[in-house]
Amino acid sequence: MLVKIASLVFDFNLYPRHEVDEYCVTDYAKAMAAGEVFPPIIADKKSSRIVDGWKRAKAALKWQGESANIEVEFRSYRTEADLLVEAISLNTVHGERIGRYDLQRCVILGDQFGLDSEKLATAMRITPEHLDAIRAKLRTTRAGDVVANKQVGQHLPNVITIKNREGLKNAGGGNQVFFVNQVINLIEHDLLDTSNERLMERLAVLCDLLRPLVKKAA
Predict the structure, then answer these.
(1) Residues 120 and 151 sit within 8 Å (Cβ to Cβ)
(2) Cβ(53)–Cβ(41) below 8 Å
(3) pLDDT category of residue 181 using cuts at 50, 70 and 90
(4) CA atoms of 184 and 12, how far apart (whole Å)
(5) How buried is 209 (Cβ within 10 angstroms: 0-12 exposed, 13-18 middle, 19+ buried)?
(6) How far apart are CA 14 and CA 51, in angstroms?
(7) Reported pTM
(8) What gap in Å lies between CA 21 and CA 25, rounded to an integer?
(9) First to last CA, the chain
(10) What count of Cα atoms within 13 Å lies in the side-chain half-sphere of residue 148?
């Protein structure tokens, strides 16, 4: 079914990867402009959220903008967990190679949605032992261990300050680009709850913190 790309919803809370590869998106957009035909996007029939095909959808946006039409296969899911299982399964069977951080994100999302270990491991196409190893790594990272948090603080010097250590304890592991992309996604797709006073207060703090960083980078 052909639908307007603007009608689809990018819900990062159900995206199995830690970030969207913008280089891949650009390559896809060029291929689309050259006439290459891609498989249809998979989306939830009820909510229009993209289940599989984020990069293809973003490539269509990059190529033709929000007026672009794109082929979509709508599917129905009994629960949010079922939707997540398919999103993970489809992302691990084709397309861009799924990396270490992506596997960690899949485990985090699976645990958040209460997926049992067998179903999650099957969707991720890994062994139960591998799943247990990823969970053990995440537990170590979340405990605030500076070495385990090198994913977040990999740019830090060998001498870690008290300020660094406290920040790492609250970071929870993962790639920094992932966290920034989450905020960008919420803003770009008008998903922020602007009526939430606490949220807007924290965004104001973020703005104040970003100004000197942007000025320094410039």
Answers:
(1) no
(2) yes
(3) confident
(4) 10
(5) exposed
(6) 8
(7) 0.64
(8) 6
(9) 45
(10) 17
At 89, the amino acid letter reads S
- Between CA 116 and CA 124 the distance in angstroms is 12
Burial of 115 (0-12, 13-18, 19+ CB in 10 A): buried
> Which pair of structure tokens corresponds to residue 80?
């949010």
Paired residues of 4 in beta bridges: 69
User: What is the strand order of the sheet 69-75 is part of?
Assistant: 2-4, 69-75, 41-44, 50-52
pLDDT tens digits for 35-55? 999 999 999 999 999 999 999
pLDDT single digits (tens) 78-107: 999 999 999 999 988 766 678 888 999 999
Structure tokens at 153: 């603080």
Three-state SS across the chain? Answer: CEEEHHHCECCHHHCCCCCCCHHHHHHHHHHHHCCCCCCCEEEECCCCEEEECHHHHHHHHHHHHHHCEEEEEEECCCCHHHHHHHHHHHHHHCCCCCCHHHHHHHHHHHHHCCCCHHHHHHHHCCCHHHHHHHHHHHHHHHCCCCCCCHHHHCCCCCCCCHHHHHHHHHHCCCCHHHHHHHHHHHHHCCCCCCCCHHHHHHHHHHHHHHHHHHHHHC
